[in-house]
Amino acid sequence: MNYLTMPKESLKELQTSLKVQYKALQDAHLSLNMSRGKPGDEQLALVMGMLTCLKTREDLISEDGTDCRNYGLIDGIIEARRLIADLTGTKPENVFIGGNASLNLMYNMVSNAWIYGVNGATPWSKQGKIRFLCPVPGYDRHFRITESFGIEMISIPMSPTGPDMDLVEEYVNHDPSVKGIWCVPKYSNPDGYTYSDETVRRFGALHPAAEDFRIFWDNAYLIHHLDFEDKDELLNIHDALKENGNEDLVYEFVSTSKIVMPGAGICALITSEHNRAEILKLMNAQMICFDKVNQMRHVKFFGSVSGIEAHMRKHAEILKPRFEICFEAFKELGEAGIATWTQPKGGYFISLYTPEGCARRTVQLCKEAGVQLTGAGAAFPYGRDPKDSHIRIAPTYPSSEDLKKACDVLIVCAKLAAIEKLLA
Amino acid sequence: MNYLTMPKESLKELQTSLKVQYKALQDAHLSLNMSRGKPGDEQLALVMGMLTCLKTREDLISEDGTDCRNYGLIDGIIEARRLIADLTGTKPENVFIGGNASLNLMYNMVSNAWIYGVNGATPWSKQGKIRFLCPVPGYDRHFRITESFGIEMISIPMSPTGPDMDLVEEYVNHDPSVKGIWCVPKYSNPDGYTYSDETVRRFGALHPAAEDFRIFWDNAYLIHHLDFEDKDELLNIHDALKENGNEDLVYEFVSTSKIVMPGAGICALITSEHNRAEILKLMNAQMICFDKVNQMRHVKFFGSVSGIEAHMRKHAEILKPRFEICFEAFKELGEAGIATWTQPKGGYFISLYTPEGCARRTVQLCKEAGVQLTGAGAAFPYGRDPKDSHIRIAPTYPSSEDLKKACDVLIVCAKLAAIEKLLA
Prior knowledge:
Radius of gyration of chain A: 23 Å
Helix content of chain A: 40-55%
Strand content of chain A: 5-15%
Shape of chain A: globular
Number of helices of chain A: 13
Low-confidence stretches of chain A: none
Distance between the termini of chain A: 20 Å
Oligomer: homodimer
């Protein structure tokens, strides 16, 4: 029953019956939220033990004698640096542990480049118009950081293998005003794509026109598989860069917000030893130390990367059915020819693509029926989706039951929006 | 036995015997540290219960229903905002709870003003040469922040009633390039002075030439008395400003680093509702939320300001004897006419003033005998003490026994440095 080939009269009949359905949904006074990538209650329950895993003074003494309860070690305790190094296939010498939010660390790296310049280069603030590449759809919070500095954002189309690398190379290797690119290389936000080996190798082989170009590699979902037996693999960017003598090009960011409790985790910056030394100099003027007690809490609770993996397998068990509820529901839109969607093997999001000009209307209809979605356009620089067709679906936070209800609403709204368009 | 009036021959004899003492101290291979204001082990032991005070999901649900274990509330949970408001004599509407370090929040406010401008004014970075007033001696970390931006620092002499307010008014009210002043208004770092009521009132009545001038009011030691029966009182800066319609002029900072565990506490910015709204807008691009679990940990552990006060009374019991060890030891230098010092009723530091040109040498001699002091000059902008006479003493971290030993070394070194100068 493809809407696109349906006679107008049938569409109108369908619309009438959908409007009745919509009215009934509105009358149910739902209040459901699929707008942000938040872990749900079942996931949070798995880390309650972390709250009480540190008890004695001995628990808080690092192997090098550092008392986690006092000032010191701006770059973190060695145990935490080793844990993050193991998780990312790097060395503790490459790891700087930050506070509770990788987004803030990203902001900090942009603001350091803006104010002080990257490793001795002219500060970005004094170089006139500068630009960032933004694979789209992407993470709204990344774009908001660059927008806050007035950095011009250039959209780069995403594909299942990653950003359009021809375009990336064209810009990065020839335009010295291009200073950075935002990447979520694994289970990308919002498509859920993982960059192919070739894409990562091409990142590793970039020859930037700007000496102060950096890849902002937000590896937010590095171990966030939906199925540990059927998962994506991402090539190590540091290795790919090293092959080309390009180690300084990347700032990799990771966070435990979606491993433990969002806002109560730790984050880290992983980069070359040379970059790390430069960053340490700057950070020493901005900070005394981050929360080492919380770092040790992670170390004691998980023990090692195996501990984290065992824990994330439990997340997968909880989250995979949530994603499947959406995939199943979306089939109805697929059959009607009015949507396509991505089918990620990990991460926190699904991209749902409506016909052109229908995303904003769909989101609005959902809102008026009590289902909050991410604002249409949010995944694009300046909040503008040129086709108005992308909707970011965040299926993790609601319970399965609520998620089913929310999908029911979404399906009706997407159909109504598409028919409105077709009849217009 | 005043050295200043002693015949040269006697001074030389004294020097010889002091050198023998110094050699013996060196041979003891001490390793003592009086360099930074760190709580000691006994203080830290008092908050171990905080590590396990949150156990259940219910413990983590804020009174407004917010789950502290998930994203949200960039300005903090209401319970924490109320606790800080009560502690500072303000309202929750004035409080923004930050991360684990007030220094970072101060850096953040300077960098926001630098990049975006204060409440819509031209960014500091685009105003040519700008300046900050720096009461001296002061906190080295404050000066390092302004130095990192290339902001020119103007020294303002401190007195037991606070900074020289004639000079402050002269600069602030007439020079639009003066954008800020660093203040530690209570138990100042390093003198331990508390600003008098008149000083605070004069701050409240400032009429800055610059529309984007701000007072950086680092109330780091607001409840850090050495004796709760004999403590300093500081007038409320917000009240003093309000009387003059000047509410927007101040950013007050507090931190629990020296109440709980340094680096694992929370910090806060207290300011007008108008400023707070402007800051929220900026912070929303830089951060998702701070660690609400740790905020709730504070709320549960202390309950209220009375709980904090009861706890800080125990700190006072531990710290007062430490300060008295120093005061007692310094008497010998006073009798020799080669030192004066401050006698704070709270905070973490004592200022020791040697004869001109002797501070650096004293610190060096101490270092060579295994006693680490804060670098001479550290309490002045650009690390330059024009008189080379100030030494910051931090008596809190070593045990009483170690502190006595460290003072013994310091006394011998201060004497040797003074005699060298007198004989030169």
